[in-house]
Design goal:
Elements lengths: L2 E10 L5 H10 L4 E9 L4 E11 H12 L4 E7 L3
Antiparallel strand pairs: 1-3, 1-4, 2-3
Length: about 80
Amino acid sequence: MENHVSIIGIIVENLDSADKLNELLHEYGNYIIGRMGLPYPKKELNVISVVLDAPTDVINKLAGKIGMLDGISSKVVCSDK
């Protein structure tokens, strides 16, 4: 299966779910090119971007698992290449 470069944008509003999110990202670590997290205390949330090089099904599976975490939302943008 062909790999695609993608970005998963994540907003963490419930810090109690952060450990579960980090476990998921660790589980998929071999596909992660880079990750950047920015705390935003003014709004009491964190913004994370994760860049992946992975097959589409892996990207969708990770994004789906992230989306099921309480107080965490995510969106995916994929390249055609």
